Amino acid sequence: MAAVDVRMLALRSVSVPGSRAALSLLAIAALAQVLGEAASMIVAAAFFLAGLAHGTIVERGGALFATSIPEGIGYLAVSAAVAALWLAAPLLGLALFLALSAWHFAGEEAGHPLATRAIALMAVGGSALFQPDATSMVFAEITGAAIPRLLLCGVAASGAVGVALALLAAIKRERSAVLGMVAVAAVALLSPVLAVAFVFFALRALPVTMRLSETYGVRRTIEASAPTTILAIAGLSAIALALSAGLLVPAIAAGMAVGLATPHMLIDRLEG
Questions:
Q1: How far apart are the C-alpha atoms of 64 and 67, rounded to whole Å?
Q2: For the whole model, what pTM was predicted?
Q3: Which of 1, 8, 15, 47 has the fewest CB atoms within 10 Å, measured from its CB?
């Protein structure tokens, strides 16, 4: 009976939107990790950059719009405030950003609440659960501060809840349960940065972009996202270049990146 259930789950998973893409991208990420740290960072960067487009579109009143100049100015003002908070109180900034990220990831339920919440919690806490030492090192580097054990344990606990929800989704045969299990595999097997990049792109940004393209058409989606996406890629590339040249320390670069990401997450949930 168990074998039958597994086969049935596998067969149903093929029809889940984005499942084949997610499995293919997971294979690419796993191969990159085998090839070494340089390949892993290149693929992680590609995932992050490829996922930017989903956050540069304004969906309002059944239509898509490119970000206007006033909206862009307001966006940058909020970004600057968030970056300032990160630099002034990095541990508080990290905790708030992780909480906001989980809230943001859980926004696209599409009728599958267990798997969606599982993915959201594993996105922020899965690596801390399976790879606490490596995750603590990443957190310490991007904040420039020692990571309290209590904070790391709290983040790991959210990952544990995410794994439990993914298993429950599979037991209940929720249609998108396969995506929850893909998230479990990613955070368990991939390095923390690569795992987060994969979950962000394959299980959040790509499904949103696919939905927008199906609803409004590929051409309109590209037209609405292209201007701001190009600016976002240019900004993040400049931060990365400054970091690699030693002009920025990791904590400042991370604060700027977090600042750029935060307004989208707030807008997406508050307007949704």
A1: 10
A2: 0.87
A3: 1
Q: How confident is the model at residue 3 (pLDDT cuts 50, 70, 90)?
A: very low
Stated as kind and residue range, the H or E segment containing 64 is: strand 63-66
| Alpha carbon distance 104, 98 (integer Å) | 10
What does the pLDDT average to over 139-146? 95
Q: List, for residues 51-106, the tens digit of each pLDDT value.
A: 888 877 777 777 787 777 888 888 889 999 999 999 999 999 999 999 999 998 88
DSSP string, 28-43: HHHHHHHH-HHHHHHH
Q: Which two tokens stand for residue 100?
A: 């906001």
Sequence-distant (≥ 6) Cβ neighbours of residue 35 within 8 angstroms: none
CA 250 to CA 260: how far, in whole Å?
A: 15
The tokens of 111 are what?
């009728």
Q: Mean pLDDT across the stretch 196-215?
A: 90
CA gap 110, 102 in Å, rounded: 16
The C-alpha atoms of residue 105 and residue 260 are separated, in whole angstroms, by 17
| One-character DSSP codes across 162-222 | HHHHHHHHHHTT-TTHHHHHHHHHHHHHS-HHHHHHHHHIIIIIHHHHHHHHHHH-HHHHH
For residue 99, list its beta bridge partners: none
Percentage helix, strand, coil for the chain under 3-state DSSP, each rounded to 5: 80, 5, 15
Strand partners, 57: 66
Which residues does 39 contact at the CB level (< 8 Å), separation at least 6?
31, 32, 33
